[in-house]
Structures are given as structure tokens and as C-alpha cells.
Amino acid sequence: MDSNHSTNHDTDEDPAEHHRTENRVDTIYDSAAVEQVRRQRRMDPHCLKRLRYQYFRGGRSQAEAYQELLPPDRAAFRQSIALDCLKLVTRVDSGTDGATRLLFRTPAGELVETVILRAPRGRTTICVSSQVGCAVSCQFCATGYLRPVTNLAASEIVDQVAQANQLLIAEKRRVRNVVFMGMGEPFHNESQVERATRMLHSENWFGLSARRTMVSTVGIPAAMLRWSCRFPRSPLAISLHSVDQRLRESLIPIARRYPLPVLRQTMEQIADRPAPAMLIEYLLLRDTNDHLDQADALAGFLTGLPVHINLIPYNTIASAPYLSATPRSQREAFGSRLRDHGFTVTIRYSQGRDIAAACGQLAAVQNE
Ligand code: SF4
User: Fold this and answer.
1) Where in the sequence of the chain do the CATH 3.20.20.70 domains occur?
2) What is the pTM assigned to this prediction?
3) Which residues are catalytic?
4) Which residue CA neighbors atom 5 of ligand 1 most closely?
5) Of 245, 268, 306, 321, whose CB count within 10 A is highest?
């Protein structure tokens, strides 16, 4: 499922955009088109740099960012080069917590979802999608039932952050963290996710700290090792959900390709590097993986590894009516048991459940 796009480490521009189809509006992400317009109009490259800085890092509106260009160039450049590549179709705000679900349409007409998660004191996380659909097909996840699966381009990933940031600016917030936990397995679209991550970190684009971007994977060992080399300061999240191979395979079908001993070995290799602690995501499913002896087994599997464990509540989806959430008291007992083993544990509550934006609920349906 890896993208056909080639990887280019020499630039933080998005060369994949050069090969995109005709009949589309050029965007700021298309470095060749931008350069062509710049040359035609003999524009000062510093003006373009300032435009990009003000829009991506400064969080200025599009109209304000275009003001960075000299008056004779503004209208012409704006007509030729758009600052976004996705079209916002719907925005749904949670009535109960700080989540917002954004539904975008890609230039190819596909629907993709992004979630804004607001925390106290202005801390804001953008949960981005890397694919439309997901071939991993986790039983508990609405995205895993979507077909066909397509990869997003780096620009389509970064634009989710840029447009979410624009909405946040109006609230006097700005994006602080970006997590690849939306639709898709990021390592099935590795080259574009890597390119997007470089753009998020780059001073020429978002300038986000590497520590503030996190990729979440079901555990694809070779890709995890590559990632920890390329982004040694960015934390990895691993969706574990069970340390019983058969149970894990029933929840995450692709797990049969990656046996748990190999995953453990991979985590040891990453731990040997100067990498930040890994985040372990464990979805608690009633009478499936939530018994205390399963907490003991999880602790045994993770012994000696620098990890933080997130216990995630299950959010019901229509495609898996046979699964149900672990009651709160059992979640707490499970967490306490892990703490007794010496682990740091966060028992999460789900933001965005009332707007189908919580973990596992993203299905890119235009129903509002
Ligand atoms: S949980 Fe993640 S990896 Fe699993 S199907 Fe959903 S999007 Fe894919």
C-alpha cells in the first residue's frame, strides 16, 4: 500500500505535486507552479517567503498573507495560486467537549476527516488523516470498513493542519500538536507522511517542534525502525490492544504478518536509540481484553521498555455491534494493575464521541 510517490529528502517542498493531474487549481504546495508564476512576474522570492511564513507560522488569514506581496502582484498571484488544496465541506462542533470534526473534499473528490481536540489553557491537537479508508481493517474502527483505500498527498495532509489552524486562530488558539491518528495507517503511506512531517517541522512551513508530531501505527516493524531513525525526537504511538497473538489478530487482521515477539524486538531496538518514550495505545473491550490477568500479561510484554500506556475507551460503531466498552470501574482497575507493575498510565476519556469524531469513529460520511 505504499504510495507510488518517490521520496525526496533534499527538499521540504512537495515534488509529488509536480506530477498531479491537469485541470486543477495550483496551490502554494506546488513549488514548480509557484516558481513559474514568480518568474513570470519577476517577484521577489522574499515576498513569497513572507507570505508562507505569515500564513503557516503566523496564522494570518489568507487575505492578510497575500498582503505580503507587492501590490502589482497580489491579484494575479492570488488568481494563479491558492493557499489551500482541500475544500472544507462540513464542520461539526461537539456539544459536550472541545472537539470539532472537519470533513474535507480532496481534489480527486474523496472525503477525508480531521479532528480538532481542544484542551485547557489553549493547548490544541490536530488529529490528521493520512489515507482515505484503511487496509488494516481493525474490527473496532469505522475507517477500516471503508473501501477503496487511497493515499493522501503530503500537501493534503499539511493542508488539514493549515485549515484547522485557520479556524483556531479565530479562537485565539493555534495548533500545538499534530497526531497521525485519523483515517489510515500512516506507514501504509510512508513517503507522503514523511514528506508532510518534514513540512510540519520545517522553518519554511509550520516550524512545529519534532516532539509535537506523533505517528500512530498498528506496529509495522521495518517502518517503525526507519521512522525512529529519520525522526528521532518524534514519539511513536503503537496500537497494541492485546499481547495475545490470536486475540490481537482477531482485532487487527494485519497483525498476523507481524508477530508480537518481532514487535517487542523492534521496540527494544527503538528503545536503544535516544528516542522519546513510546506511547502504547490499548483499547479496552468488555470481556475481550480487559481482564486483570490480561493487564498482567501486558505489563510482562512491556517490561523494561520506556513506554507510557494510554487506556482508550471503545466508541461504538455500527459495523461492530458485537463489541462493547469496558465499564469505567473495570478500566480503572485495569489501570491500577498496570501502575502496580510500575507503568505510567493515562485512562483516557473520548473527546468527540457525540459527533462521531472519537477514536475509531471516523468514516468520512457527509451526513450533516
Ligand atoms: S484503527 Fe487505525 S489502523 Fe485500524 S483500521 Fe482504523 S485507521 Fe486503520
Assistant:
1) 87-355
2) 0.89
3) 113, 359
4) 144
5) 245
